[in-house]
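note to self: dont lose this again. the chain is below, predicted strucutre after it. 206 aa total, dont forget to put it in the shared folder this time
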Amino acid sequence: MTTTADLGFIHTFLPGRDDGSPLLLLHGTGGDENDLIPLAQRIAPDATLLSPRGKVSENGMPRFFRRSAEGAWDLDDFRLRTAELADFLARARTSYRIGKPIALGYSNGANVAWSMLLKQPDAFAGAVLMRAMLPFDPRPLPDLAGLPILLLAGKYDELIPVDRAGLLAALLGEAGADVTYEVLPAGHGLTPEDLKLAAEWLARRR
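---
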């Protein structure tokens, strides 16, 4: 395992034991570069892992983009941070000699993941988006023809209205992605069923 601030982001790189797609791990608010590694090792134990830490601090909690005091997204910062993270991914792929990753994002990390998918779809082999939402219309859409995406929502999510997750699933499908959308009897936190579905999906697509 390598943890470094090189390439523009503090990040951890963990080489895997197979030749499948690596995973780009994108944590939720308050997480860091180590947060999703145990989860990833559980659902894809042999995968190469690349895990950056978000650069924005919200009351001391790392995030990938800013929110206003009212909790609304700062869309200018969202676009800027999306591009910055995409640049990091390009440099990391060259530096570590890895192929197209599957994005594995939770909450704030899942939201910046779908933004990256829309901006640079050719950079990814797919995505697992857990507790993501669509708060605005990001059209025009790129061609995501056949790109596999798993979207996991919580029916009782106290932070993300489930209809906002459904809107995201519909939008990604409109762009041509191969979307699997599951609404679980869960809140914002992840459950064993989330991990089971993610593991099964990754096993078929890595």
